[in-house]
């Protein structure tokens, strides 16, 4: 059983196994079930993720509030022009992250990774990388176990709840998880995964949870988009040999402490940040007929 | 460790939009339903903290009621749970509380019908994971660090032995156990923390034992 990233990396190194394998073995041990059971449950999650992505990039998804929907399609169409500056894989990841969160906002079916509000980053990056490197099904399922291993450490040592730790705990965690998993899929070492996680999360520290009208829509959908791009860049940096000066576990600890000192208005209460802007309040009043801050 | 399974992180599969405010809320409602053991005639929910502030936007209300109607986190009927409850002539009432609670996502659920009532306080701690912290006025005092079940039973000799024997038979070790009752010979409550995840089949077996009224898994 690993309690932090350092132990996770050391376990993987000493057993000469990938991080995904350490997570699979721990899950088998915890459940007392077979590899096949654990693998298949994760495969089912992968199927749900793919369906959400496909729905989001192909259908005209609209949330009940009308605040979000349709952006994944816009981006897919733009990519076809061939003029994008950030490149195909990057925008594909971004659009598929958006797709997932648009489906989520429309009360569609998704798989939380690690939460619903941050459900876009991990599948968004995965299904974009699929186009690029054509991984096997097993590699894709392993991607989710590697993401899960890092998320597991964050959830136990810090938080994955926006109400407790702000958006850094949700999209921040998801971004780190995706970065670490990309590294393993692309053939990097467990240590490089931990650096990718650290680099990604460092650049999400302090991010507040300030959803307009309390809905998981604005700015959540676009924060998943930027999280996906952040994850790809952090993974590339780590694969290039760049290391994080601050060890991964200390970055996670810093995230936790920042979350604890964050005012309640910025932790999923729709009382501060973007939710409290004039336009945020106006949208809120339009949706509910009355602004929440009058309560 | 509060999170023990990789599927707490990659999962659950759920209806959006929020794992804590929608999926977690559905799970709190469902635990209440399982402990109550039947469909209630009346549901009163008090919401605290972030739940109270943002429940409409997150579908927390439909999810809680969906849970009480025994819908799982991925059940698409959750979206229409309030309408379904209305069709079933179940009385539903929500109140927003200003009191400060230890956890920002706290809900108190009161279920009742002509045969009885139940009150439960649940918190949603992130990623769809929940804890039940109070049942019928009993503070449960669970660590949240181990899988746990609640067993409502008749205060009779042999009830506790039956449950522990069943767990032993399935090689499940009890780490902590608490028994509380309000009155001798009436309804009582076992709170059991164990070292291993308890499969549904074992829960069903426990529930079929003499003098056992209800069993519910409150964390895994």
From TrEMBL, chain B:
<dbReference type="InterPro" id="IPR051318">
    <property type="entry name" value="Fe-S_L-Ser"/>
</dbReference>
<comment type="similarity">
    <text>Belongs to the iron-sulfur dependent L-serine dehydratase family.</text>
</comment>
<comment type="pathway">
    <text>Carbohydrate biosynthesis; gluconeogenesis.</text>
</comment>
<dbReference type="InterPro" id="IPR004643">
    <property type="entry name" value="Fe-S_L-Ser_bsu"/>
</dbReference>
<dbReference type="InterPro" id="IPR005131">
    <property type="entry name" value="Ser_deHydtase_bsu"/>
</dbReference>
<keyword id="KW-0411">Iron-sulfur</keyword>
<keyword id="KW-0312">Gluconeogenesis</keyword>
<dbReference type="GO" id="GO:0046872">
    <property type="term" value="F:metal ion binding"/>
</dbReference>
<keyword id="KW-0004">4Fe-4S</keyword>
<dbReference type="InterPro" id="IPR045865">
    <property type="entry name" value="ACT-like_dom_sf"/>
</dbReference>
<dbReference type="InterPro" id="IPR002912">
    <property type="entry name" value="ACT_dom"/>
</dbReference>
<feature type="domain" description="ACT">
    <location>
        <begin position="148"/>
        <end position="220"/>
    </location>
</feature>
<protein>
    <recommendedName>
        <fullName>L-serine deaminase</fullName>
    </recommendedName>
</protein>
<dbReference type="GO" id="GO:0003941">
    <property type="term" value="F:L-serine ammonia-lyase activity"/>
</dbReference>
<keyword id="KW-0456">Lyase</keyword>
<dbReference type="Pfam" id="PF01842">
    <property type="entry name" value="ACT"/>
</dbReference>
<dbReference type="Pfam" id="PF03315">
    <property type="entry name" value="SDH_beta"/>
</dbReference>
<dbReference type="GO" id="GO:0051539">
    <property type="term" value="F:4 iron, 4 sulfur cluster binding"/>
</dbReference>
<dbReference type="GO" id="GO:0006094">
    <property type="term" value="P:gluconeogenesis"/>
</dbReference>
<keyword id="KW-0479">Metal-binding</keyword>
<dbReference type="InterPro" id="IPR029009">
    <property type="entry name" value="ASB_dom_sf"/>
</dbReference>
<keyword id="KW-0408">Iron</keyword>
